[in-house]
C-alpha cells in the first residue's frame, strides 16, 4: 500500500506588528535609580520646565468673579446725593379706576401704592396697590423710565410680593388665595398652597425666598410653612412657632429676613413684639428675644449677617440689633413712621447707606457706618405730601425707586333729615363720578390740605 503523504506542519502564527513601548526610567552612574532631586535637575537641563513656564506665563483673560450664593448684587456707592426732583414719575396707571375695587360699593379714587421693588436683575419693577393689582414694568436703564408690561388682578388684598433672587420671577400672596409665582410677562409659573390642620387653605402674611432659591418661606398665624420650588403644591415642612409648654411667637408672623451667608437660617418678626431666629435643621425657634416696641413690620439683614435691622408699626425709629449678642441694640435711627403702614427700607451692598420712607413724605438716607447710639438722617428729600411707604435700590445703578400714598378718609357732609341715607349715598356717588371725570381727587379727600399723589418715582443718586 502506498505510504500516506506527510502532513505539513501549520504555518507559524503571524507576529504582532504592535510594539509596546516600555517606559525607560533614567538611570545614574552604576545603573542606580535617580532620586527626585536628580530627576528634576535632569528635566531642567533638557528644557522641559522651560516649556511649562512659558505656558504659565501666558496672559489669561480676566474672568468676572462669580457671586457667592446669597450675595446681594447691589450697587456700591461711596457717596450719596439724591437729586432734588425725580427723573421719572408714574401716576397715570394708578388713577384710572373704572370699576370698584374688591367688595367696596363705592370707589373713592384713592388707589394708593403699597410697595415698589426692583427685580434682582434690575430689568423689571413691580408695584402693589390698593386696587388689588400687581403691576409689572419694564425699566429702561438709559432713560431711567418705565413702561407698563402687565397689570394682574390678584382677587384680594395683597399681603406681600417678593422677587426671585436669580430669575425674573415674582411671588405674591393675597387674601383667600394661594401663593403664586409669576414671570416677567405676567404668566403664572407655579402655585403653593398653605394647608392648615383643618385641611383648609390659609393665606400667607409674608413670604421670602431662601438664599439658594430652592425654598420659599411663608409666615402665618403661629406657623411657618416651607415650600419646595421643585415640588409645587402643598408645603413640604411646617414649623409651629408657639406651644403651651415652651412658649414662642404666638401672634401673627408679619415679616421674614433670610440670612445672606448661611443657607437655611432666617429671622422672623411678629406682631407680638418679638424676633425669632430659625433654621431648616431645627423644628422650633433657636433664639428668641423681645424688642419692647410695637408690632414688627420690616426686617433686613446686613450683608455680613451680623446685624439685623427692624422697623415697627406706628413708631419713629429703625433699630439695629447685634446678632453676636442677640437682643442687644447697637443704635437707633430716627425715622418718622407715625401710621400703621409698613414703611420699607433698603441697604446698599457696602452696608453703609440705609434708605427709608417716612410718614412725612421724605426720602431719608442714613450713614450707618459712622453713627452712634442714635442718629439723624444725613439727607432728606421731600418726595410727596402723603406718606412715602416704599423704597428700592437698583441692583447695578445708582438709582432709587420710591412709592407714595395712604388711606385718606373724606369728610362727610351733613344732610337734611328728608334726604335720608339712600339720598346721601346717591349724592356721594354722583360727586365721585364728577370728580373722576374732571380728575379732581385731592381737595375732597383731605379738606385741601394734602393732595393725593398715588404713584412711584425714579431718582438718580
TrEMBL record:
Basic and acidic residues composition-biased segments: 20-41, 49-65, 425-447
Gene3D superfamilies the record matches: YVTN repeat-like/Quinoprotein amine dehydrogenase
Family: Belongs to the TCAB1 family.
Region annotated Disordered, chain positions: 1-70, 415-447
GO MF, any single term: RNA binding
Pfam family, one: WD40
Signal peptide from the UniProt entry: none
Organism field: Pristionchus entomophagus
Domain of life: Eukaryota
Gene Ontology CC terms: Cajal body
Biased composition (Acidic residues): 415-424
Name listed for the protein in its UniProt record: WD repeat-containing protein 79
Record GO biological process: Cajal body organization
Amino acid at each position: 500500500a502506498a505510504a500516506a503523504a506527510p502532513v505539513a506542519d501549520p504555518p507559524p502564527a503571524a507576529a504582532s506588528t504592535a510594539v509596546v513601548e516600555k517606559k525607560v526610567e533614567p538611570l545614574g552612574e552604576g545603573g542606580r535609580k535617580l532620586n527626585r532631586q536628580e530627576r528634576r535637575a535632569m528635566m531642567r537641563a533638557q528644557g522641559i520646565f522651560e516649556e511649562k513656564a512659558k505656558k504659565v506665563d501666558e496672559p489669561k483673560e480676566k474672568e468676572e468673579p462669580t457671586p457667592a450664593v446669597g450675595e446681594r448684587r447691589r450697587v456700591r456707592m461711596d457717596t450719596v446725593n439724591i437729586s432734588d426732583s425725580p427723573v421719572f414719575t408714574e401716576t397715570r396707571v394708578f388713577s384710572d379706576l373704572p370699576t370698584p375695587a374688591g367688595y367696596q360699593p363705592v370707589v373713592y379714587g384713592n388707589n394708593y401704592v403699597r410697595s415698589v421693588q426692583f427685580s434682582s436683575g434690575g430689568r423689571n419693577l413691580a408695584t402693589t396697590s390698593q386696587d388689588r393689582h400687581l403691576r409689572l414694568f419694564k425699566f429702561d436703564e438709559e432713560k431711567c423710565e418705565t413702561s407698563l408690561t402687565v397689570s394682574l388682578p390678584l382677587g384680594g388684598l395683597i399681603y406681600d410680593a417678593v422677587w426671585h433672587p436669580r430669575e425674573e420671577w415674582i411671588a405674591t400672596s393675597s387674601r383667600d388665595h394661594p401663593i403664586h409665582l409669576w414671570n416677567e410677562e405676567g404668566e403664572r409659573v407655579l402655585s403653593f398652597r398653605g394647608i392648615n390642620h383643618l385641611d383648609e387653605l390659609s393665606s400667607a402674611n409674608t413670604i421670602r425666598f431662601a438664599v439658594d432659591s430652592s425654598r420659599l418661606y411663608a409666615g402665618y398665624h403661629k406657623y411657618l410653612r416651607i415650600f419646595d420650588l421643585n415640588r409645587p403644591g402643598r408645603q413640604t415642612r411646617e414649623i409651629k412657632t408657639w406651644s403651651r409648654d415652651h412658649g414662642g411667637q404666638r401672634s401673627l408672623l408679619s415679616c421674614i429676613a433670610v440670612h445672606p451667608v448661611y443657607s437655611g437660617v432666617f429671622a422672623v418678626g411678629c406682631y407680638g413684639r418679638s424676633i425669632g431666629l430659625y433654621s431648616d435643621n431645627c423644628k422650633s425657634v433657636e433664639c428668641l428675644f423681645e424688642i419692647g416696641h410695637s408690632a414688627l413690620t420690616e426686617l433686613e439683614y446686613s450683608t455680613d449677617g451680623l446685624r439685623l435691622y427692624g422697623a415697627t408699626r406706628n413708631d419713629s425709629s429703625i433699630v439695629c440689633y447685634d446678632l453676636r449678642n442677640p437682643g442687644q441694640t447697637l443704635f437707633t435711627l430716627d425715622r418718622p413712621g407715625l401710621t400703621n403702614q409698613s414703611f420699607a427700607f433698603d441697604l446698599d451692598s457696602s452696608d453703609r447707606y440705609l434708605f427709608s420712607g417716612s410718614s412725612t413724605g421724605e426720602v431719608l438716607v442714613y450713614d450707618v457706618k459712622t453713627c452712634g447710639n442714635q442718629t439723624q438722617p444725613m439727607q432728606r428729600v421731600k418726595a410727596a405730601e402723603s406718606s412715602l411707604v416704599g423704597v428700592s435700590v437698583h441692583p447695578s445703578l445708582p438709582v432709587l425707586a420710591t412709592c407714595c400714598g395712604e388711606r385718606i378718609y373724606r369728610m362727610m357732609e351733613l344732610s337734611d333729615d328728608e334726604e335720608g341715607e339712600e339720598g346721601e349715598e346717591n349724592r356721594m356717588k354722583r360727586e365721585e363720578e364728577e370728580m373722576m371725570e374732571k380728575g379732581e381727587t385731592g381737595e375732597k379727600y383731605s379738606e385741601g390740605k394734602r393732595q393725593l399723589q398715588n404713584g412711584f418715582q425714579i431718582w438718580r443718586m
